[in-house]
Design goal:
The structure is a single chain. By secondary structure, the chain is of the alpha+beta class. The longest helix has 23 residues.
């Protein structure tokens, strides 16, 4: 049996601010890794799934997050998973792991900006 899928990869930033998004698009959804910083790792998983409201002509997305105890990596993954779910209208999983030692507010702002820029570029690739 052969499965049809496409892969996409986007990197934004450099050094401890580097963010890497890898996306596997298959018929049933998107499988994404969000890694970066000084020590890429598995810090949590987020699942976003589209859902139509039964009485309204609107779509919603349900989001579940499972952080590794003591890790905050799903903070970056939740908005990414939600946006990819809305955009693709498919289920999305995001495994995230971004670590910067003793991160300052400025570090976190730069990492967030790079996550947003990487997401924007990934959305463009998915539309191409």
């Amino acid at each position: 049996m052969s499965f049809a899928f496409e892969t996409f990869e986007v990197t934004e930033g450099t050094g401890k601010y580097e963010i890497n998004l890898r996306c596997l698009r298959c018929e049933g959804g998107l499988v994404v890794s969000l890694l970066g910083g000084e020590l890429p790792h598995v810090g949590g998983v987020v699942l976003a799934s589209p859902r139509a409201h039964p009485k309204e002509n609107r779509r919603y997305e349900d989001v579940w997050e499972i952080p590794v105890p003591g890790h905050l990596d799903t903070i970056a993954a939740v908005p990414l998973a939600r946006e990819l779910c809305i955009h693709s209208k498919m289920p999305v999983t995001v495994t995230s792991g971004i670590h910067v030692d003793d991160a300052t507010k400025a570090d976190l702002e730069q990492i967030t900006a790079n996550c947003n820029a990487a997401l924007k570029r990934l959305l463009e690739l998915l539309d191409a």
